[in-house]
């Protein structure tokens, strides 16, 4: 009697070895498919599971080409590159792992903020150049400042946990929740957050509703200049409006791990092709930049793999 072939899982992006090892131990056959799309990858139509980060979009057409697909494991928090409506219609379970990198994002946001408040990049650069400017690099303390957190999921709550130990006043806004604030924070409406916050940190997913959420109207609603942090998604912020707010003083500093231009302007553009708003961010000492690495630490790399493996085992009741 011929044994049934092992169910196939396609690894579409490189991930921590804990996930493929665990899947193999569950009895899956694994295929690495790090190049091409649904039309190019052998055995796409046979896959029972897909493991992906963000290399390409799993749109309706790609999903329709996989009639045996039962689940998708997204190594990360965002799901904007997966057609969730089609997946739900087809009965395909979509896993993601925001629990795995929440602390990484919270620490990164806090690190960028402290670096900006204390002028650390500039001070480090100047000392290396033999310049000893103490008064000009005097910092601002975080204690007693009011921090507004927009979006209180895994990432927003991780930042709040870290800030409460530093003596900050915390205002939380989440459009889709109520009665969620921990004892050390206050749940408020967006208008109050905009009126009272000294620092605003964005922690919303990328959806049609959040695209362009932080625009000129958002900045005009502020009652005082703020420092703005974005470790969420670049397309939630209208870059040109942020630059104008920096120029007019509505925003006195920005910490940006994500950027609306990530897929175009950060991959080999000639200097003459860089959009003016992006070039302003590059050149401004009011701005801290990093290359979408907030959630990508050595520890979170493994933790996200372990979270996904746990969820997949639960799916199969193992």
What does this 3D model show about the protein?
By secondary structure, the chain is α/β, with parallel strands linked by helices. The protein folds into two domains: 8-96, NAD(P)-binding Rossmann-like Domain (Rossmann fold, 3-Layer(aba) Sandwich), CATH 3.40.50; 103-289, NAD(P)-binding Rossmann-like Domain (Rossmann fold, 3-Layer(aba) Sandwich). The protein is 34% helix and 16% strand. The chain is built from eleven helices and twelve strands. The protein has helices at residues 18-25, 60-64, 84-90, 98-117, 120-128, 154-164, 190-196, 216-220, 239-248, 276-283, 298-315; strands spanning 8-11, 29-32, 47-52, 71-74, 93-96, 146-150, 169-173, 186-187, 199-202, 226-230, 251-256, 287-289. A seven-stranded parallel β-sheet has the order 8-7-6-9-10-11-12, with helices on both faces. Helix 6 links the parallel strand 6 (146-150) and strand 7 (169-173). Helix 1 (18-25) packs parallel to helix 11 (298-315) and helix 4 packs antiparallel against helix 11. 37% of the residues are buried.
Q: Give the overall average pLDDT.
A: 94
CATH class call of the largest domain: Alpha Beta
Give me the side-by-side strand order of the main sheet. Answer: 8-7-6-9-10-11-12
Instruction: Note the run of SSEs as H and E.
Output: EHEEHEHEHHEHEEHEHEHEHEH
The 3D shape can be described as elongated
Number of DSSP helices?
A: 11
Distance between the termini: 26 Å
Low-confidence stretches: none
């Amino acid at each position: 009697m011929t044994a049934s072939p092992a169910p196939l899982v396609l690894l579409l992006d490189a991930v921590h070895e804990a996930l493929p090892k665990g899947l193999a131990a569950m009895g899956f056959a694994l295929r690495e498919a790090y190049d091409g799309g649904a039309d190019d990858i052998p055995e796409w139509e046979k896959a029972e599971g897909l493991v992906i980060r963000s290399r390409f979009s799993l749109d309706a057409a790609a999903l329709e080409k996989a009639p045996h697909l039962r689940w998708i494991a997204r190594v990360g928090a965002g799901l904007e590159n997966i057609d969730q409506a089609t997946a739900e219609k087809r009965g395909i379970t979509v896993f993601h792992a925001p629990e795995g990198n929440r602390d990484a994002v919270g620490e990164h946001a806090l690190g960028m903020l402290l670096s900006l408040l204390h002028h650390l990049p500039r001070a480090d650069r100047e000392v290396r150049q033999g310049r000893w400017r103490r008064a000009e690099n005097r910092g601002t303390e975080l204690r007693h400042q009011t921090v507004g957190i927009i979006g209180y999921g895994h990432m927003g709550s991780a930042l709040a946990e870290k800030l409460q130990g530093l003596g900050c006043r915390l205002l939380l806004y989440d459009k889709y929740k109520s009665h969620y604030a921990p004892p050390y924070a206050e749940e408020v409406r967006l208008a109050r957050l905009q009126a009272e916050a000294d620092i605003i940190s964005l922690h919303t997913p990328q959806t049609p509703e959040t695209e362009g959420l932080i625009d000129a109207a958002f900045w005009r609603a502020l009652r005082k200049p703020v420092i703005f942090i974005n470790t969420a998604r670049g397309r939630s912020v209208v870059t040109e409006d942020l630059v104008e707010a920096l120029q007019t003083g509505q925003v006195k500093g920005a910490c940006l791990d994500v950027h609306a231009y990530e897929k175009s302007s950060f991959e080999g553009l000639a200097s003459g092709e860089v959009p003016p708003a992006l070039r302003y961010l590059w050149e401004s000492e009011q701005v801290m930049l990093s290359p979408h690495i907030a959630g990508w630490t050595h520890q979170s790399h493994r933790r996200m793999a372990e979270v996904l493996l746990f969820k997949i085992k639960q799916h199969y009741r193992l």
